[in-house]
Design brief:
single chain; Cytidine Deaminase, domain 2; Dihydrofolate Reductase, subunit A; 2 domains; 12 helices; 14 strands; binds ligand AOF; binds zinc ion
């Protein structure tokens, strides 16, 4: 990441990104947006961010905070100002009314109704510049842009592993690989997602609850189980809590027809059952994700699943980001499973290269954040 010391606009955009991130988990499926107003002499006079779905846009907040001092000033905003009447009025009009002379924005807005703000402001005689070269801005907006382009939610794959890459440790070592602070981080992230996705293998092996515990949830994610043969036990924790927190079981459409009684029992317990056409015993994950976005409004999915399901998601280019928790342990058994199985189509010599984006420490663990390059996590432009 290059960082020119004298590039004040870029520094201010980075500050606007930090403001925008306060909306994480509260604004989606809207974008997170931050804005800063400078007065005519370049002093910061107003900060704003988009706080919740349906609430004022970042520009409107920052302009309101600046009051009279906007005249002849500058507004910096992480996303192109909207040009539409949506849940709120167009930001372009608010910017024109404020009397600022200069507009700096980060990413273009691909939203079919909202886009076109930069052209509108230029036409009105303002000095409008795009800064597409600030990496933090690109990271901030990528989930929103991915969703609009692909019709699929942003998918974060999370797993915890030992130093030797295993996701199971020897018996008697307890159930958890990662530290308590790591698990709190996971719960905070769960509380910012719309869906927690897992596979039937994980449900049968661990009987997980997949809810948000010990932290304040910004949203309560729907638990989604990929269960082709409809094997989920009625007495599993997921089914038993289906009334408190949504549960969707995705299975093969023919199995659903055959096992209508079981499906009825699941529905009676509060779950939703979704039948999909499977091939070779495997459910179409791409279609599942599209339907989660289209029918259930999901914009962010956290995958907490086993090696095979992670492998399939990677192989089909459906993972956008990976969070890997590396615990300072070495697995006790030769039979421990590796975290991901079959991430590429090829055999030996084929691998997938992710890009390291962040390094954090939680307890004794390393928390590594990776992006999956767009050519690997296809944006949906190809079929
Ligand atoms: C901005 N500034 O702070 C945001 C923008 O549902 P609405 O009416 O709030 O509109 C949402 C759309 O507006 C969203 O899809 C995106 O294109 C834009 N969001 N634009 O100028 C903001 N949140
Ligand atoms: Zn707006």
């Amino acid at each position: 990441m290059t960082h020119r010391r004298d590039d004040r606009d870029a520094d201010l955009l980075r500050l606007a990104v930090r403001l925008a991130l306060r909306g994480h988990g509260l604004v989606e499926p809207n974008p997170m947006v931050g804005a800063i107003v400078l007065d005519a002499s370049g002093r910061v006079v107003g900060l704003g961010h988009h706080r919740r779905i349906g609430g004022p846009h970042a520009e409107v907040e920052a302009i309101a905070a600046a009051g009279e001092r906007t005249r002849g000033g500058t507004i910096l905003v992480t996303l192109e100002p909207c040009n539409h009447q949506g849940r709120t009025g167009p930001c372009t009009e608010a910017i024109l009314a404020s009397g600022v002379a200069r507009v700096i924005y980060g990413s273009s807005d691909p939203h079919p109704q909202a886009q076109g703000g930069a052209a509108r402001l230029r036409k009105a005689g303002l000095d409008v510049q795009q800064r597409a070269d600030v990496p933090e801005v690109r990271l901030l907006n990528r989930a929103f842009i991915h969703r609009l382009r692909s019709g699929r939610p942003w998918v974060v794959a999370k797993w915890a592993q030992t130093l030797d890459g295993k996701i199971t440790v020897g018996a008697g070592d307890g159930r958890w690989i990662s530290s308590l602070p790591s698990r709190r981080l996971v719960h905070r992230e769960r509380g910012c997602c719309d869906v927690i996705l897992t596979g039937i293998g994980t449900v049968l092996a661990d009987d997980p609850l997949l809810n948000v515990r010990g932290v304040k949830a910004r949203r309560h994610p729907m638990r989604v189980v990929v269960d082709p043969r409809l094997q989920i036990p009625l007495e599993s924790q997921l089914v038993r809590t289906a009334r408190e927190q949504p549960l969707l079981v995705a299975c093969d459409a023919e199995v659903l027809e055959r096992d209508e009684d079981l499906a009825e029992q699941l529905r009676a317990a509060g779950a939703t059952v979704l039948g999909l056409a499977s091939t070779g015993g495997e459910l179409p994950l791409r279609e599942l994700l599209e339907r989660l976005a289209g029918e259930f409004g999901a914009s962010r999915v956290l995958v907490e699943a086993g090696a095979r399901m992670l492998g399939r998601l990677f192989r089909h280019g459906l993972v956008n980001e990976a969070w890997v928790f590396v615990a300072p342990r070495v697995a006790g058994r030769e039979t421990g499973l590796a975290a991901v199985a079959g991430a590429t189509e090829g055999g030996l010599g084929h691998s997938l290269t992710l890009s390291l984006e962040s390094i954090r420490r939680r307890g004794g663990d390393l928390v590594l954040g990776y992006g999956v390059p767009a050519s690997d996590a296809s944006s949906g432009d190809n079929p």
